[in-house]
């Protein structure tokens, strides 16, 4: 399992446009084979966190060739991104948090 987590920063005045693009990419990516979850949320105006969970690295990589991901990248490029940080984790096992 692959977990991707990070953040994106951009001018606060562009937060609404970013969230519209984020909603579109999240919705489309959740429908892709091998996607378990795909979330983007605003932590404060102009600062967004993302979390993606994929069954395999191949499934995660396949999203990069999709039209919806290209549209998201173009939208973010036009919104003045000031910083981005992201990490990919390979998860060896999963168990319930409680119980």
Please render the helix and strand layout as text.
Blueprint: E1 2-9, H1 15-30, E2 35-44, E3 47-54, H2 57-62, H3 67-77, E4 83-90
Helix pairs in contact: 1-3
Summed up, what is this model?
This protein has three helices and four strands, in the order βαββααβ. The chain has 99 residues and is α+β, with helices and mostly antiparallel strands.
Range of helix content:
25-40%
Strand sequence of the main sheet, in spatial order? 2-3-1-4
Q: Residue-averaged pLDDT, rounded?
A: 95
Percent of residues in beta strands: 25-35%
Q: What labels would you give this structure?
A:
99 residues; alpha+beta; four-stranded antiparallel beta sheet; 3 helices
Written overview of the protein:
The structure is a single chain. With 99 residues, this protein is of the alpha+beta class. Helix content is 33%, strand content 34%. The chain is built from 3 helices and 4 strands, in the order βαββααβ. It has a 4-stranded antiparallel sheet. α1 (15-30) packs antiparallel against α3 (67-77). The longest helix has 16 residues, at 15-30. The radius of gyration is 14 Å and the shape is globular. The mean pLDDT is 95.
């Amino acid at each position: 399992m692959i977990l991707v987590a990070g953040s994106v920063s951009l001018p606060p005045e562009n937060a609404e446009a970013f969230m519209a693009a984020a909603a579109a990419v999240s919705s489309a990516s959740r429908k892709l084979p091998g996607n378990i979850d795909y979330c983007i949320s605003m932590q404060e105006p102009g600062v967004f966190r993302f979390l993606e969970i994929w069954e395999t690295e191949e499934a995660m990589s396949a999203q990069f060739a999709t039209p919806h991901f290209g549209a998201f990248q173009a939208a973010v490029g036009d919104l003045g991104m000031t910083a981005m940080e992201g990490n990919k984790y390979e998860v060896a096992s999963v168990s319930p948090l409680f119980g």
